[in-house]
Amino acid sequence: MEQLGEQEHMGGITSSVITFATHRLAEIHRARATKNENNSWQLDNAVWKNNDNDLTDTFRPLFNDDVCITAQLSSYYARRCTKDQTKPLKWSKSIMKVLSYEYLSKAVNIIMNGAGVQAENSAASIQNSSIAKIINQNTSKQEVDKASGPNKGARTVAMHYDMNLNHRLRERLTNFK
Questions:
Q1: 3-class SS at 30?
Q2: Residue 52 forms part of a structural domain
Q3: DSSP string computed for 118-146
Q4: DSSP string, 75-95
Q5: In a structure prediction context, what are the per-residue pLDDT tens digits for the chain, which is 177 residues long?
Q6: Comparing C-alpha atoms, which of 29, 7, 62 is closest to residue 176?
Q7: Which three-class secondary structure state does DSSP give residue 116?
Q8: I need a surface site. Which of 89, 135, 163, 164 has the fewest CB within 10 A?
Q9: How buried is residue 74: exposed, middle or buried, by Cβ count under 10 Å (0-12/13-18/19+)?
Q10: Using the 8-state DSSP alphabet, how is residue 35 labeled?
């Protein structure tokens, strides 16, 4: 991860969050990340634009650092200087401002292209393939709903499933081939 450029690094983090937390790109664009004492990372974001941070995801470290969001976030924040640690997730140290939505979209497309996903597919392809992998793990309907975000929206997930965090399912997905 250290050899990746800033855009590729941000694209990897964004793709991982879309995959594991099933957020839309707009929700990730509004996110703030904070590191907790136990090496987990907390992602605070607003479901609606100009809203307080009403959705919180906590990502715990996994055994496989290659697919671990916490390892990616730690590496990304290690590149930042001390005063930039409190800036939003989408802050760019190279241009010294908040990254645009289009920049994040392009970063995700770079990662998708590197993974062999065709350019005409959108970031939804990552989310759809994530849901397909979850279903292939012989999960219950409840686990699929928790992981994919029920129809009631992300707020339902935040209020009722935050303590579960789909940790067991995430562990199984990291070893999925």
A1: coil
A2: yes
A3: -TTS-THHHHHHHHHHHHHTT--HHHHHH
A4: HHHHTS-GGGTTS-TTEETTT
A5: 566 777 776 777 777 776 666 666 666 767 778 888 888 888 887 666 665 656 777 888 888 777 777 888 888 778 777 777 777 777 777 777 777 767 777 777 777 777 666 655 454 555 555 666 666 677 777 776 666 654 444 444 444 444 445 556 556 655 654
A6: 62
A7: coil
A8: 163
A9: middle
A10: E
The two three-digit tokens of residue 79, written as one number: 């590149």
pTM of the predicted model as reported, rounded to 2 decimal places: 0.54
Side-chain-facing half-sphere of 134: CA atoms under 13 Å: 25
Q: Which two tokens stand for residue 90?
A: 């989408």
Domain count, the chain: 1
Rounded to a whole number, what is the distance in angstroms from the first to the last CA of the chain?
Answer: 21
User: Which residues in the chain belong to E strands, given as ranges?
Assistant: 32-35, 41-45, 55-59, 91-92, 97-98
Q: What is the CATH number of the domain that holds 153?
A: 1.10.443.10
Domain that holds residue 64: 6-174
How many Cα atoms occupy the beta-carbon half-sphere of 55 within 13 Å? 20
10, 28 Cβ separation under 8 angstroms:
no
